[in-house]
Amino acid sequence: MHRAAPDILGVFFVPRRRWRERKALLADYALLCLVAAMAGAVNAIAGGGTLLTFPALYAALGGTNAAAVMANTTSTVALVPGAIGALAGYRDEIRHERRRVVLLLLPSIVGGLLGSLLLVQLPSESFAAAVPWLILAAALLFALQPRISRWIRSEHSHAPEAEHAGLARHAAGVLAAVLFFQFLVATYGGYFGAGIGILMLAALAIMGMEDIHRMNAVKVLLNLSINGTSVVVFAFSGKVHWPFAGAMAVSSIVGGYVAAHTAKRLNKSLVRGLIVAIGFGLAAYYFYREWLAPQSA
Description:
The chain has 297 residues and is mainly alpha-helical. Helix 1 packs antiparallel against helix 2, helix 1 crosses helix 3 (65-88) and helix 2 (50-60) crosses helix 3. The protein has helices at residues 5-45, 50-60, 65-88, 91-95, 98-121, 131-158, 164-191, 196-206, 212-235, 242-265, 268-292. The protein has one domain (34-292). It is globular and about 75 Å long.
């Protein structure tokens, strides 16, 4: 009789314990889906959605060193469908920018492949010191882009015909630099990726693009090519939490599609200001994490 007590208690308490575990798991899924929808929306406008999904996944997966890499790969897999949803909302803009897309697609794919291979083979701290500076520089470039573009147009319009060949050579040099910069951005994007949206927008600004909605459209497509390439690598690495990734993917599609349509209805100056604010916010976050945040033992 005395030995039967543990069995009776087990029958009573085990289901309750399992129910608590299931409730906690359901809460994780609910939070991750909400975060993924927000990240899909943010990525459709300027990028930086990884800053939302990565910490949430890192906590849900246990916060261990191994969880950091899995959170990174799972975040990438989860947000790719959101980019597809956003791209559907930018169909018209993409049709007008096919030339630039073709130019930037190859360095995006090659860089994304290289970065994702580095992630699954190497430690994940390599880019940490450079990330805040990259994002801050990109935000500054994007904020100053209208003035830079006006200056370039003014110089071009006042230049005599004899100087046009020199300007053409200068333009070719700028294009080569932008393509190389896009390759570096894509490599970083395949490796971790937070903030690549603002970096790509800066590159597009240097190429002379001014329409913020077309810039967003090209950025979303390039981001999809980078992360889509990474997903193929991650899928064979065995480092993706597929249940979380699947649930978050559905939410990111909704968030990306809604944000793409909403952004096009907003004033262009307002959208530009929002993107610059996101860029400076990302830079501040990374400077804090790199220099001021308490380091774990």
